[in-house]
């Protein structure tokens, strides 16, 4: 268990119940944490933090405590620049805990995790590990975010071929097999450093370069799909389509021309569209979406659950797939409310005849939960990060060696068990493609 908690050597527990505190301290030691500091309430925790020579790597905070409760403690910690990431442990109802997490997210806090009491060693280890990892990746993002990108630079990078597609596997929840890949743009600068799409896609959207960027991603991905085919691998592609592009009258023809040139069938291609963007100019966007659908392409509603009018869009737009946002996947195994929301979304896709994809699958717990819940496809770091196209065949060999482990437990009857069918088979099920 020790290696699960790389980087966590010390923890401070703020918990008023002596029994609970002793139990949590015991769990911490069981998962290899060497220094465990204990405080009976928020005020004691702050005093201890001031007294310690080294701040702890993480904190475990109970919500309900006398003198200074967990929320006040967290608010005090937010004022400190060196505050450790923390996990909330509470026996209170999960709606309350969810509100606290929302409060933390709204103020940009590192902690995205809560544990229901009684916690187990494994769930505590996982929650602590996630908190620390979230802080690291946020720190990394903040460092990278310092780089400002201009439209001129972006245009040059596009012309010079510095923006290339990487591919992230989409996995069948029934069989564990590879069923497709999502195409994610990567910009490599002259030093070989990669710039995340969050930094240049908005610039592309604002400058009109999103059209050439999308067509470049699509063309490179189609060319990659062709060379996979030559090696006997037929892999459906999912390409991100900025909602802004849906207003472009030539888009459907541009896409159709490229797809014909590379000899792919439209059902082998799904376009992922973020829901918030579709709302703004629904009339024009709808026309493009309907035309893409009529030509047989799959349409996926991306980041489902994060927009504000998802239900309405589902009723109006001919989506074939629903992609549940990662915020409903991470931590759902330990949060009953998230589990209920997730299950409702999956049930809805079944009733609407849509394929259901879960993104942000990071752990074996996430994977097991999705299989039990009857989700179709899963995507996330648990299987593999986005990688260059020529690395995918080797990744697949390694993945196949993991299949027994991935499918060791059988999903319940809820699973739709679409083994053997492709993403687009499912997207087209019961509908004219
Ligand atoms: P997205 O469409 O939601 O893509 C999924 C993002 O989640 C990717 O980030 C992916 O690397 C990341 N991800 C994958 N698995 C996990 C996981 O297990 N845990 C976590 N925490 N994250 C995971 P990435 O590549 O940085 O892309 C960010 C966003 O940029 C994408 O979000 C998409 O909206 C946009 N984007 C990327 N490529 C393109 C493109 O070619 N065109 C357009 N219009 N947008 C793009
Ligand atoms: Ca996407
Ligand atoms: Ca997404």
Structure description:
The protein has 433 residues and is α/β, with parallel strands linked by helices. It has two domains: 3-143, Rossmann fold (3-Layer(aba) Sandwich), CATH 3.40.50; 151-406, TIM Barrel, CATH 3.20.20.450. Helices cover 45% and strands 18% of the residues. The chain contains 17 helices and 14 strands. It has helices spanning 18-30, 42-51, 70-78, 94-106, 121-145, 151-159, 197-207, 210-230, 251-261, 275-280, 282-294, 310-316, 336-352, 364-373, 392-401, 403-406, 423-428, and strands at residues 10-14, 35-39, 58-62, 86-90, 114-116, 163-172, 178-188, 194-195, 237-241, 269-274, 298-304, 321-324, 355-359, 377-379. The protein has an eight-stranded mixed β-barrel, surrounded by four helices. The protein has a five-stranded parallel sheet with strand order 2-1-3-4-5, with helices on both faces. Helix 2 runs parallel beside helix 3 and helix 8 packs parallel to helix 9. The longest helix is centred in the N-terminal third of the chain and has 25 residues, at 121-145. It is elongated and about 70 Å long. The protein starts with 9 loop residues before the first strand and ends in a 5-residue tail after the last helix. The model is unreliable at 413-433 (pLDDT under 50). The protein binds ligand C2E and calcium ion (2 copies).
What attributes does this structure have?
single chain; 433 residues; alpha/beta; Rossmann fold; TIM Barrel; 2 domains; 17 helices; 18% strand; disordered C terminus; binds ligand C2E; binds calcium ion
């Amino acid at each position: 268990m020790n290696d699960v908690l790389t980087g966590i050597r010390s923890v401070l527990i703020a918990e008023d119940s002596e029994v609970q505190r002793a139990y949590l301290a015991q769990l911490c030691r069981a998962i290899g944490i060497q220094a465990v500091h204990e405080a009976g309430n928020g005020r004691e925790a702050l005093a201890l933090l001031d007294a310690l020579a080294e701040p702890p790597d993480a904190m475990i905070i109970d919500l309900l405590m006398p003198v200074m409760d967990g929320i006040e403690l967290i608010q005090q910690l937010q004022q400190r620049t060196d505050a450790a990431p923390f996990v909330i442990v509470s026996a209170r109802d999960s709606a309350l805990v969810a509100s606290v997490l929302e409060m933390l997210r709204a103020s940009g806090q590192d902690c995205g995790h809560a544990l229901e009491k009684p916690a187990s060693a494994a769930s505590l280890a996982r929650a602590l590990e996630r908190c620390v990892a979230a802080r690291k990746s946020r720190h990394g993002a903040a460092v990278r975010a310092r780089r400002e990108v201009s439209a001129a630079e972006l245009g040059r990078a596009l012309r010079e071929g510095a923006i290339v597609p990487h591919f992230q596997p989409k996995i069948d929840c029934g069989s564990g097999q590879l069923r497709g890949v999502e195409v994610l743009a990567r910009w490599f600068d002259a030093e070989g450093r990669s710039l995340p799409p969050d930094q240049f896609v908005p610039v592309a959207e604002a400058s009109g370069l999103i059209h050439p960027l999308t067509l470049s991603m699509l063309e490179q991905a189609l060319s990659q799909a062709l060379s996979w085919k030559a090696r006997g691998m037929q892999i459906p592609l999912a390409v991100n389509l900025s909602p802004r592009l849906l207003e472009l009258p030539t888009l459907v023809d541009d896409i159709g021309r490229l797809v014909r040139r590379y000899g792919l069938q439209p059902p082998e291609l799904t376009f992922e569209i973020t829901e918030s963007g579709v709302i703004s100019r629904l009339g024009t966007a709808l026309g493009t979406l309907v035309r893409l659908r009529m030509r047989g392409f799959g349409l996926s509603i991306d980041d489902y659950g994060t927009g504000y009018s998802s239900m309405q869009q589902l009723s109006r737009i001919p989506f074939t797939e629903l992609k549940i946002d990662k915020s409903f996947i991470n931590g759902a195994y330990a949060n009953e409310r998230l589990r209920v929301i997730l299950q409702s979304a999956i049930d809805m896709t079944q009733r609407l005849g849509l394929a259901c994809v879960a993104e942000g699958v990071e752990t074996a717990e996430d994977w097991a939960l999705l299989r039990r819940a009857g989700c179709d496809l899963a995507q996330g770091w648990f299987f593999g990060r986005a990688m260059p196209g020529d690395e995918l065949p080797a990744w697949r060999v390694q993945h196949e060696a993991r299949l027994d482990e991935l499918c060791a437990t059988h999903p319940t009857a809820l699973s739709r068990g679409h083994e053997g069918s492709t993403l687009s088979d499912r997207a087209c099920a019961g509908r004219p493609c």
